[in-house]
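Annex B. Sample input.
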Amino acid sequence: MSPVTSAGWSAIFAVLALVGAGTRDLLLFVLGTSGVLVALTSGLWQRYGLVGVTYRRTVSQSHAFFGEEIDLVLEVTNRKVLPLPWLEVEDDVPESLTYLNALLGSSYKAKRRTLVHLCSLRWYERVRRRYRIRCSHRGLHEFGPATLWAGDLFGLTLQRREVPEVTRLIVYPKIVPLERLGLEVSGPFGDLVKPRTLWEDPTWVAGVRPYQPGDPLRRVHWKASARLGHLHVKLLEPTTHPRLAIFLDMHTLLGHAWWAGYDPLLVELSIVVAASLATWAAEQHLPVGLFANGPRFRGEGPATVALPPSEHPEHLRRILEALATLIPVATTSLGDLLRTEAPGLAFGATIIAITAVPDPDSLDVLERLRAEGHPVGMILVGSRAPAVSAGDLPVFRIQGEEAWRDIARITVG
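Annex B, continued. Sample output.
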C-alpha cells in the first residue's frame, strides 16, 4: 500500500476543518486547520527537500600501501534557502578494510557494509565528516553508490535519491625485505638474481665481423651476409645489466580445476613474495617484469598479466597495481604461461617461478629455459607444497601461509 502524500494529508485535514466549521466544533476546526498548515509545510519539503543537495565522497589518495592509513571524507552541501531538518546518507563501502572511527551497518550485498551519515543542514550549509581507514587488504576497493534520505520535521514525507558515483582505491600488496622471507640476497638466491660478470646480450648489437669456424649459427647476421657476399656474425655488446622475470602461478589446489576454488592464504603469500621480489629488484635498478596466469579485477584486460622487464620509473607501480588487482583464478597452466611469454625475454634474463603446486610440465619448461641460457629458479610457497625433483634447478621453499600478514613469523623450509 502506498504511503499517504502531503496532498493526501492536506485533503484529510481540510475535511476535518470543514466538519469542525460546519458543526461549530472549535477543537476539530483548529485541529484540521493546523493539520492543513503542517501538510502544506511538509509538501514544501517533499518537493524541494533534496533540490540543491550535493554529495561528494573523496579519499585522501587513490593508491595506498598495505597497512597504510588514509582518510575517507564525506561532504554534503545544501545549496538553497530551505533547510533540511534531517538528512541520512547510506554509503556502500567494502568490508575488507578497517574503519577506525566509524560504525558500520550490515548490507545485503556480499562483502559490503553500510556507512551511515546522519546530519541536519541549514540554508547554504556544508557538513563534512572524516573517517580514518587502515588499508588491511590488497585489492581494488570501491566506495559507493550512496543513497540520500530526507524528510520533514513531522515525519509525514520521505524523499530518496541515488548517488551512483563510485570512488576507487587500490591497495598494493604487502611488501617486506627478502631476508624476512628467507631469501638471502647474500646466499644462493642472491647469486641467482644479482648482477653478474660480463655476458653478451644479443639484443644489443655493436657491429659485425666475418664468420669464423666455431661461431654459432644463431650469431649469423643474415642481412649483412647477403649485402657483403659472405657470412658475417653479430658483435654483441657486453653488459652487466641482467633482467628479472617473475612468473606467478595462481593455481593453489593440486589436481583441481579453476572452478574447484582456491586457497586464499596461499594466494596472498604468493602475491606477497612476488611484490617483495619485484620491489627489491627495482631498488637494485634491475629491469623487472611480471607474468601471471590469472586475470585482473572485473576482467579489465587480457586473461593473463604480461608486463615484460623494464627500467621505466613507473614500471614498479604497474607491477604492484597488477598484483593488487589480480584475482585468484588461473586461466592457464604455469607451463603454458612460460612457453608463451619466455621466448620474448632477452637472452640471459633470470626467470623466477612462484608456485604452490609445482607440476612436471612447468619443471620441464624451466629446465629447457635453463639449457637455453636463462638463470632459472623456483620458489615454492606453503607448508603443503609437494617436494619436487628438480635436478640442478634451484628451489626455495617459503612456509607459514597462515601468518602471511605477520611476515616476521614466516619460515623457510
